[in-house]
Amino acid sequence: MESIYDCFKLNNDMKIPCVGFGTYKAAEGNNVEVLKTAIEVGYRYFDTASFYQTEDFLGQAIRESNLPREDFFLVSKMWKDEMGYQQTKDALEKSLKRLGTDYLDIYLIHWPRPSADCENWKELDLETWRAMEELQKEGKIRGLGLSNFLPHHIKNILENGTVKPVVNQLELHPGYMQQAAVQYCKEHGIQMQAWSPIGRRRILEDGLILELAGKYQVSPAQLCLRFLLQNDIIPLPKSSSMERMKQNMDLFHFEISEEDVSRLATMPQAGWSGEHPDPELAQKNVV
């Protein structure tokens, strides 16, 4: 990889850029201008969701860029209350309208379970997936994917669906690499993507992160993003600052050594958001 425009190849032969721009809380209060800035500095892969409430702003930013739709790689997700067969079809139509496009490059199920007490989540996921498969046949979605799915959630889709997920998004960063889930996806040809790729504030102030950032003469954020790329994981950084946007693109002039990759991969848990795909587990673990 030599730039953010270089691509990974997905299991359906689609190509996906190796770095995306996350839009969750990326521009609270000034959404359009920040997204227009992201396009100006060079981002073309944008990750959004109905829950983020940024689809309208992203659509406007793309229109005002005067660039063709085909220049962009757009990914969105349906929220927990939009799951189900007909609900999914309705949710996609709303997302397409907000974005001002007639297709998505990838559409994701945002979370595998809508709530901790949802006992029929497997059936709900499959109803949702069936609708997505039909929407793909209609040309409204190029690829189907998952977000926050762990191996036992993914297994349900793999065993009962007819289309394999092309991607899965998880919270991934040094200090929280979810090795079992990442390995499972790699074994099944599912491309991993990282939300919250630089973790929380504690990560950027961690002693090891600061040491290695100094060694490679990069920012702590750049170190985290490069670490993910070297693990074949697509990072989805977000920023409202043009300087940091550019910095988050500048990941290809250095390479982390094998020894330092190992140190980052085995550092103590840090920076976890407290969110978990099985909600009752998060409730037990968050104090």
From TrEMBL:
Active-site residues from the entry: Y52
Keywords, in A-Z order: NADP, Oxidoreductase
Domain NADP-dependent oxidoreductase, first and last residues per copy: 29-265
UniProt cross-references to CDD domains, sorted A to Z: AKR_AKR1-5-like (cd19071)
Marked site: Lowers pKa of active site Tyr: K77
Family per similarity comment: Belongs to the aldo/keto reductase family.
Entries under InterPro entries matching the protein: AKR, Aldo/ket_reductase_CS, NAD(P)_OxRdtase_dom_sf, NADP_OxRdtase_dom
Residues noted as binding substrate in the record, renumbered to the chain: H110
Protein name: Aldo/keto reductase
Keyword Oxidoreductase tagged: yes
GO molecular function annotation: oxidoreductase activity, acting on the CH-OH group of donors, NAD or NADP as acceptor
Pfam families xrefs: Aldo_ket_red
